[in-house]
Amino acid sequence: MEWQGRMCIVSGSYQSIDSTVPKTVVELWCRAEDGHSVVLLVHGLRPYFDIAIPGAPSPEQDPDLDSVSGMSEVVEVSEPVMKWTRHGMKRHWRVYANQPYSVRNLRKKLDNWEITSADILFVNRLMLDLDLGPHISAGGRVLWAGQRAPEISKNDDNTSKLDSEKAIIAAGGAGLYPVDMVISCNLEDLEKTDTFPAPFVSFSFDLETSISTNRILCAAAVIDRNGSRSEHEFTGSEREIMEGLTKLVREEDPDFITGYNIDNFDLPRMQERSEVICPRPKIDRLPLFGWGRVPASDSESKRVFPQRQQNRVWRIVGRVPMDAWWQARQTLRPQRETLRYVSQLLWPDDQSKRKLDVDASRMDEEWAERPEVVMEYCMMDTHLPLDILDRLKSIARKEALASVSLTPVEMASNGTTSQWIDSLVIRLADRSDPPVAVPMTNQGPRKRDQIAGGYVHEVEAGVEPWVVVLDFKSMYPSIMISNNICSTTLVRDDTRDESFASSPVTETRYVSKSERVGLVPQLLQDLMSKRDQYKHEMSSARSSEDAAEEFLLDQLQYAVKILMNSFYGVFASSFYRFTHPDLGASITEWARHNIKAIISELDNSGHPVVYSDTDSIFVKSPVGTQAPTRKPDGGEDLESWSSAREKAIEFGNSLAGQFTKEGAELEFETALSAFFSHGAKKRYVGRVVWPREEMLIRGYEVRRTDSFQLLTETMTEMFELILNGDAWSSVEMTKTVIDNLRATDVDVSKLVISRSCKGKWDKRKGEWDFSVYKNENGLPYVRAAKERISRGLQFTPGMKVGYIVTDASVSPMEVSAWLVEETDDKPPNYDPEYYAKRMATALGRITEAFGWDADELLRGTRQKSIFEF
DNA sequence: GCCTCGGAAGTC
DNA sequence: CTGGGACTTCCGAGGC
To answer: Alpha-carbon distance A7 to A621, whole Å?
Structure first.
C-alpha cells in the first residue's frame, strides 16, 4: 500500500542498522495536512564529512589517503573537490563514515587534517542536502496505519500489529511507533512544498502535588486536536495517575506538550516521581513517563523518556515541549508571572478564568477536604495554557519561523539563533560556485575584547515641542549587505584596493560584490526581498478578505524580521563557525559613523537633533512653537495644531527622502507633538500624533517590572500633564498621591515589586541553592523567594518573585512575599515611608527638569497649604 | 547621614 | 553548549 501527501516536519532523529553494509535511516516525525501523524523512515543518506590538508593550499602534496580509508569506521573516501577556504581554494576529500555516531571519533583520529562539515546533525544533513523546509510533500510504502489514518491507507484486516512491527523493523525503523502512520521511503520521495498551516495536536497537563510528601495527588489533561478539545481527569494512586497520563500521550500522539511551568515543575516532578516509584530497572518506568514518540520497547530505553541536560530545554523525542509560562514571559513581559496574573492580564473580563477558591499553600488539606474543587481548579489550569498559546499565536509563530529558517518545527521552537542561521548559511555554502568549506563551531570559551556597540546621543532635560523620529530600516542587515560583510569576503592581509569596502576607522576591508558576493549578504538580501514580498501578498490577501491567508503571511513576514535581526548577534559572537572578531566590530563601526554623519549634517543645517540611539534620530521640527502640543477640542487652536502636524509630517518625509541612499533606507517613523526626557539616555516619553495618536514611553519605571503599579500609574499621569504643558499640576497631583500613600490609604496590591530570582535545586541536600549570589540574604527578592518556598508554593529559577517592603528602616530591609493570588493570606502592611521615598525619588527625577525636586514632592499638600496661609 | 562602589536586574 | 552592547536604577556594604 502506498500513500502520498503534504506534511510538516515536527522533529527528526535517526536509526543505525549495523549490517555488513552499514545503513542509516532518518526518522521524521510529521503532522499531515489531513490531520494524522506520520513517521517517515527515509533511506539512502550516508553520513559524511570533508577533510583537507591544513594551512595554505598545497596542490602538489600527495596526502596519505590510504590510512584514512583503512580506518574501521570509514566506508569510502571520494575523489577531491575544490572548495573555497579562508586560505584559498583547496582540495577537499569527502569521507563517508559507517554511522553518524562515528564522526565524533573520526574527528579525533584525523586531527592532522583540517576537518569541515563534521558537526552537522544527521537530520539537518538530510534537510540541507535535499534543500527541504519543514513543509514537504512525501510518499512511500505504508508499513502501519492506525485508526486516525486515512481509510485508503489502512492495512488489510488480516495484517496484524505484529506483521506491521516486523515490516517496520525490516525497513530500519525501531518498531511500532505510537503514531497514526509509518511510511518507508527514499530520498527522492521527499520534496519541498508551499507553506501551509499544519493541523497540530497539543497536549496540556497540570499536576497537583502534596506539599508534605511531593506525591502527585491528581492530574488533568486536555487534548487540543486542531481546535477541538477533550478533557481528561486522573485520580487514584500515583502510579495510576502517571500511567493514565502516559497512556493518553501515547494514544492521542500530540506534537506539542504544554502546561504552565512544565519545564521547571511538572516535567521534573514526573521524572522524580517515576524514579521514586520505579527505582530500577529504568525501563519499568516506561508506562509512567514514556512520552517519547518511539515504540514502547526495551531497546528504546534511551529515547522514550523526556530528558534535559543540566539546566537546558527538555527534549521529548518526536515532540515539542512548549511551556506556556515561557511563551507568556517572552511575548508579554508581565509584571508578575503567576498563571493567575497572566490570565487576568489577557482576559480581564472573563469570569470563567477567575481564581478558584483553592489555597495552594494548603494543598494536602484542600485535596482531603474537597477533591472535586481541587480537580476543577486543576482542569482550569490545564485549559489556560492552551488559551495562552492560542492568544499569543505561539505555535503558528514557530511554524512560520521554521518555514523561513528551513528547519524542523522543534528547532525553530526550542533551538538557538545560531542553529537557525546554520540552516541557511550551510545550505548556501554547499551550493555556491565554488562551494565554501563549512568550518566547525569554535569550541570552548573564547575570551575576547568586547566590541563597541551602537551610538547613543546625549539628551537634554525638558520638553521639546514638535519632533520627528526617523529610523534606519534593518540597519545592521543593510550595512552587512551594502558593504558585503562576511567571513568569506573579509580581506585578511594588508592588501588595499579601490574596489574594497573599507570601514571608516579601523579600515577592516571586504572584497567587492563584483568579485564575490558573501554568503551572509546574499542571504540577507534574499530575506529582505522575501519580507517585502510577504508584506505585499499580505495586503492582497487583506483586500480579497482572505483572513487565513493574511494571517499566515503576517506570521511569515514577522518570522523573516526575527531571523534577519538574529544575524548580527551570531556574527558578533565568538563561537560561531563563520565568524571573525572584525566582522561584528566593523558592522557597528559603520553604524556609528553613518548616524553621526547624519546628525552633524542636520545640526549644521539648522535642524537640531534632540536624541538618537543606534538606528533612530529625533529631530526638532521647524514648526511654530506657538502651536499647542495638546490636541485642542476645536476652534482656532485645533487649526494651529493640525497645521503644525501637517508641517511635521512633511518635514519627516522630506528628511527620509534626503538621507536615504543605496543600502541605507531612512524611514519616517513617527511625528511627536512633544518629546520629554529628564536628561538620561534611553529614557523618554513622546506624544505621538502620526501615524496614530498615542503616548510613547521608553525606559522609564512605567515599563519596568521592578517598579510597582502605583508608581507606574502616577508617572504615566504625570507624563500626560507634562506633555500637555502642565508641569505644576503634575507636582500637585503627585503630592496628593504621596499623602495618601503615607496615610496608608492605598490598595497594597498596587505596591507589589517583583524581580526575577535565580537559584538551583541542590539534589544532594534536597533544597534550593542561592549561592550564585554573593550575598544572598542581602537581596530582598531572594528572601521573598525563600518565603514562597517555605510556604510550599512553586519556585522556578528565573521566575519573577513579588514582594512588599514592610520595614525599610532596618538593614537589610524587611520584606514579605506577595502570596495573595495563590493563598488565603491577607495582604501584609507596607512601610509608608519607604514607598513615599521611592515615589518621590523616581518622580522627583522627572520634576527636577522643572525645578521641583524629590524633597518638594515629599513635603505634601497639607503642609504646603499651611505655609501658604 | 552622606557618599562611593560593586552586584544585580532590567530595558532598549 | 553558546546572539550582541549601552545605559539606568536599586540595594547593601563600607568608609568617614
So the answer is: 54
d(CA A787, CA A825): 13
d(CA A307, CA A314): 6
> Residue for cell digits 592581509?
A493
Distance CA A241, CA A363 (A): 17
Check if residue A699 sits with its Cβ under 7 angstroms from strand B.
yes
DSSP-derived pairing of the beta strands A814-817 and A74-77: unpaired
- CA A383 to C1' B12, in angstroms, rounded, equals 34
Over A355-366, what HEC string results?
A: CCCCCHHHHHHH
Scored b (16 or more CB within 10 A) or e, A775-804 reads ebeebbbbbbbbbbeebbbbbbbebbbbbb
Q: How far in angstroms lies nucleotide C2's C1' from the CA of residue A148?
A: 41
pLDDT band with cut points at 50, 70 and 90 for residue A9: very high
Nearest to A324 by CA among A346, A305, A302: A346
- Pairwise CA distance, residues A317 & A322, whole Å: 13
Q: Which amino acid is at A25?
A: V
Nearest to A65 by CA among A88, A91, A31, A44: A91
Query: Alpha helices of A149-299 — where are they, by DSSP H?
Result: 161-170, 238-252, 267-277, 286-289
Contact, A44 vs A187, CB < 8 A? yes
- First-last CA distance in chain A: 98
Q: H helices of A202-360, where?
A: 238-252, 267-277, 286-289, 324-332, 339-346
* Peptide bond connecting A439 to the previous residue in cis, omega within 30 degrees of 0: no
Mean pLDDT, all residues of chain A: 93
Burial class from Cβ neighbours inside 10 Å (0-12, 13-18, 19+) for residue A56 reads: exposed
What residues form DSSP beta bridges with A498?
none
Q: Which three cell numbers stand for residue A73?
A: 569506521
Q: How far is CA A639 from CA A375, A626, A644, A686, A692, in A?
A: 62, 12, 9, 21, 18
Looking at the DSSP assignment, which residues form a beta bridge with residue A42? A26, A185
Three-state secondary structure call for residue A287: helix
Query: What residues contact residue A527 under an 8 Å CB cut-off, 6+ apart?
Result: A404, A477, A560, A563, A564
A88 contacts A58 by C-beta, under 8 angstroms = no
The mean per-residue pLDDT over the stretch A616-640 comes to 88
* For the segment 554-583 of chain A, residues whose CB is within 7 A of strand C: 565-566, 568-570, 572-575
**pTM, full prediction:** 0.95
Q: Which nucleotides of B are covered by protein (CB under 7 A)?
A: 7-12
Which tens digits make up the pLDDT trace of A335-374?
A: 888 898 999 999 999 888 776 789 999 999 999 999 999 9
Is the C-beta atom of A569 closer than 7 angstroms to strand B? no
- Distance measured from the CA of protein residue A786 to the C1' of nucleotide C12, in angstroms: 19
One DSSP character per residue, A417-449 reads: HHHHHHHHHHHHHHHSSSPBP-PPPPPS----P
Chain A residues 397-416 within 7 Å (CB) of strand C = 415-416
pLDDT digits (tens, 9 = 90+) for A283-292: 999 999 999 9
Average pLDDT over residues A689-717: 91
Question: What number is the average pLDDT over the span A842-866?
Answer: 79
A444 touches strand C (CB under 7 A): yes
Nucleotides of C under 7 A from a protein CB: 1-13
Q: How far apart, in whole angstroms, are the C-alpha atoms of residue A25 and residue A123?
A: 10
| Strand C close residues, chain A 769-798, CB < 7 angstroms | 775, 778-780
